[in-house]
Input
Amino acid sequence: MLTISQLAAHAGVTVAAVRHYHRIGLLPEPDRDPSGYRSYDAAAVVRLIRIHVLAGAGVPLAQVEDLLHADAQEFAEGVREIDARLRAEVRRLQSTRKRLAQLAAGEQLALPASVVGYLQRLRDLGVQERYIEKERDAWIVLAARMPDRIDAIIAKKHEDLDDPDLLRLYGLLSGALDWSADDPRVVEVADVLDRITTRAFDSGDVGGEDLDDQVVALLDAAAARTSSAAERLMVLLAERGWKGITRVERIAARTPGT
Output
């Protein structure tokens, strides 16, 4: 006869596992000997080994009891069902791993490849990552709102990067997050945006018309919060006759103080 420690050793499990199997009814508790110790026979060793093998193969403990008493046909059917569940779980875990890999890739999770490529081009042009993160967030919103048009919009953005004014604008905005409201470069940004926007309106290529007012307000508010200089930039643009960032509108030109 064997003690609980000897039983566990024969089956290759821990004493804690044996006690757990006792608690859930998988392994019957034997009577205690006159000294108060449990005493196990060879049948207990065989049963514990079978439990351990089934559990180690991925059989849920709730199903182990049924398989222990199943005939050959029932056992085979039970194993097939468990195998099917395990295969489904493997597919789920593989899907989870793929999603985790996308998360590790950052912006690729929420953005189409065209936008990711455009942001990488900005990096290659020397635009600071801090600014790119702000622009990336805006593209996430736009891509979600216009999934069928985003690739065409990005293609146009690549064309626009041939414009020296746009390159200069990105060069300025790259460091604008740290500007104060009275930084003289804010005026230069306003001048560059004025030229770019004037050309866009003259050519009829304005953009932003398909976005609803709520999205426009959301993106404009986010842009206004990027730095302390942003509010002044809005004022300067209004003085030059423009309103809005996401969807630019031409307004009557104003002069400072009016």
